[in-house]
Design a protein that fits this description.
The structure holds four protein chains of four kinds.
Chain A (H helix, E strand, L loop, with lengths): L1 H24 L3 H22 L7 H23 L7
Chain B lengths: L2 H23 L3 H21 L3 H26 L9 H23 L9 H7 L8 H9 L1 H21 L15 H25 L6 H17 L10 H23 L12 H22 L11 H6 L2
Helix pairs in contact in B: 1-2, 2-3, 3-9, 6-7, 7-10, 7-11, 8-9, 9-11, 10-11
Chain D lengths: L2 H26 L3 H26 L3 H36 L6
The chains are: A mainly alpha, B mainly alpha, C mainly alpha, D mainly alpha.
Amino acid sequence: MHELRMGVALFLLLMLLPGLARAWRGPTLTDRILVIQLFGTCGVAVLLLLGGDREAAALRNVALVFAVLAAVTVIAFVRFAPSEDVR
Amino acid sequence: MSLVDWTLDGVLAALLPLIAWGVVTAASLDKAIMLFIVLGFVSALAWARLDAIDVALVEAAVGSGLTGALLLSALPAIQPRLRRPSSLARRAGVGALLAGITIWLGVTTLRLPARSGGLAELVCENIEQSGALHPITAVLLDFRGYDTLIEVAVLLVASLAVRAVQRPRLRPGRRGEPTSEPLASFLNLLVPASIVIAGFLVWEGSHAPGGAFQAGSILAGCGVSLQLTGERPALRMTLRVRAALVLGLAVFVALAGAPLLRGHDLLDYPRPWAGPLVFALELALTVSIAVILVTFFPGAPDRPEPPARAADSP
Amino acid sequence: MSGTTPWISWTILAPLAGATLSVLVARRAVPIAVIASAATIVSVAATVGQVASAGAVSSAAGAWGAPLGITLRADGFGALMLATFGVVGPLVSLQAIGRRGGPRARRFLVLWLFAWASLNALALSADVFNLYVTVELVTLAAVGLIVVERDRRALAAGLRYLLLSLVGSLFYLMGVALLYAATATLDTELLGERVTPEPASWTALALMTAGLCLKAGLCPLHAWVPPAYTSAPPAVSALLSGLIGKAPYVVLVRLWVEVFPGSLGGGAARLLGALGALGIFWGSLLALRARRLKRVLAYSSVAHVGYLFLFFPLGTAGAWAGAAYVAVSHAAASASMFMAVEVVERSVGHDMLDATKGVAHRRPLTFVALGLAGMSLMGLPPSGGFVAKWLLARAALERGEWWWAAVVIAGGLLSAGYVFPILRGAFAPQRRSPELRRAPRHAELVSLSLAVVALALGLIPLRLMALLKLAGRS
Amino acid sequence: MTLQELAAAALLFAGAFFFLAGAIGLLRFPDPCTRIHALTKADNLGLGFVVLGLAVEAPSVVLVAKLGVIWVLVLVSSSLSSQLIMGRAQARAPRTDPRGPT
């Protein structure tokens, strides 16, 4: 079961690569903030998977922190990011 | 460690420099910031993987969450000025120097004699007498509490310095954009959730990874959200805010000074009370760290400036 | 620690408590700062007294002791730096107290109290990681002080200083990590016993030294110094050049003398000495060419950092006394000069070199101060600067390395070249007396008292040296 | 392999599939509006299935509750984020694209 969870975690990490490609290419800031959202969710999932077979709840706390702060970046983005990009 | 574990670590280790390279070579500032936030996510995962949960918590909260928001909020002020890439030769020179140092450090680290984990044993031996059952908290607030005392002063000074140079120009909430319905209901959920989670993390800190810094960052994230959406006005330096700002340092200085009056060394907590005292200190620090982090964000001016001065800033 | 009053801890906690309180009760910031300063001065005096009578004093934070906890230790060197900070700093801060507490003066006082606490903590720390933390607080308080007037140029200079300083900190911190990995301790005394000549140790030493040299502004890493010292308010420049600029050097000396005792006299030490000599020449030459008073003083500070580094290649007790004397006398003299420039600038409206023309008759106190402090900078007897340079030159000749002595003497001549024009312009006869604005009286008095301190340092050299000899190993 | 483990494995695989779908959509879809559509699959369903997969095996109810809280938090904040991001994009769209019905 440990193997399976690690395998899924690894797979999710690999899913970050297409995200990175999108972040690199853009072309708009909107695309990039979407990538950040994907990474946040992926991060939560990976942390939960890593913590799945451990006694310590600590890793799930990291996921909790990720989850609760996920929107702050987006709110700052909406407030402050320059606006010239949307096509 | 199975093959999957190794591959997982390998992918993480490969992702970090890849993203970092992207941050450094990004053509525009906004792209660099976006990639930097991503870098924060991945390094939090890496710390978690290294079993440094405390660091992972801080990285998740401060490194990616708050820092990302802070960088984004600085973007409008600096965007037009970033137009001058340095010469290729200079960049190559700096790059070569840094690469050299990095390789040398790597070699030196690998050649270090394999010894036991530093002071870890000593920490575990003495943890019963300290004010916390989690080794990291014990080190931060008891064994090396004096370091943390000065670090808290560093945070407060940083806040004062930032406040000295902030302009009221970027004060959100003045823009007259009404809070949308979903945003309002989200904030209604965020505030209680943040308070509960922050309290939970402080409590965890006494026996598990967690503590004042992580909890403070959560509260700060909530405060920043309220401030950025204009739901709450920017922090003004009222007496109450100033009290929250200095609470952590004040409690810390008091805890450091009180033993001196009784002829002991500084920060020498009376041992039976060490646990409750450290916990009270954590609570005070949580409040202060949260307020200090919020003051870093634009929109937290000294006091309401008269309109004449607010208008003349370019 | 038992029996004796823990003055050593109060030297840090008193200013820290004062700073905390004056943030909270901003309206009463000035009286709080006065009380905290008085308490700190008493603690510093008592600590210095303890060290002078009974030798090094120490205290273990949290009663844990090394290697688990952090030790504070006041030896001769630490006591000397405490005394320097405790005399020069409060005198400079008097000008803010004298201004009767506008918001700027209040911000200045709060940040100065934080800076003072961190400087004292730095002088007393016997733990390489704690030294890092104190250096960080010194740096951030310094940045806060540079930008205290919200001036645009100062903001750029402060940010530049902050970024370069953080790079320096990063290097230092990497060194700390390596040392801890190799020896499992952070305490300087234990490190001195456990450090062995292996790649990790000297890599750590190299990283930490490079970082601290950047922070100290050793030539050729001094690019941040002139903009910071010239765009900050003069009182802040006085603190920066006189006290805060010495902080990284204090850490560096602790590293080289206590943690890596065997490293003195090697090729690296000669390299540091050579960079110091380069700094003396380059700083002095730029000071000669400078057209503004503050710029002259900023480059003069670069040159004086150079003198401090001549200690490393010489490494003898005499050279050590000389370097410590440079640190102390330059602190007083440079702070005095910056305060005098404040008076001139306020009187005339600018600080070009010719600003001093004909002002001597109208601001006699300031020009007595400029003259006395200038004597110390040039190294004329009987000033503290003279004793410092004489000790350094003698130490060089005793070791048969006359070239260092030549550097010292040449540096003195060059400094005469940039100090005399300031005074000559002032005493030149004027056809008509210039229109002067009101100048702050207390700044004049502060400048004069600092200049007297710089001069007096030359008259009581033996007592100071007796204190320094307690510095143990050097 | 017990039935419980099988169920967990299936759920985890389902989660992974939706993450894959989201990532590919983010990379391949032509414009931000469609990309955000792809992304919500990963956010809601992908994480949801992973959480379910872990919950099946969770030793205690408290842990299940905690997983649920995390999922709900991510759901709420991601739907809000999508809304804010698209709101921002649309608020500016008419300026560049005022004419021409599509």
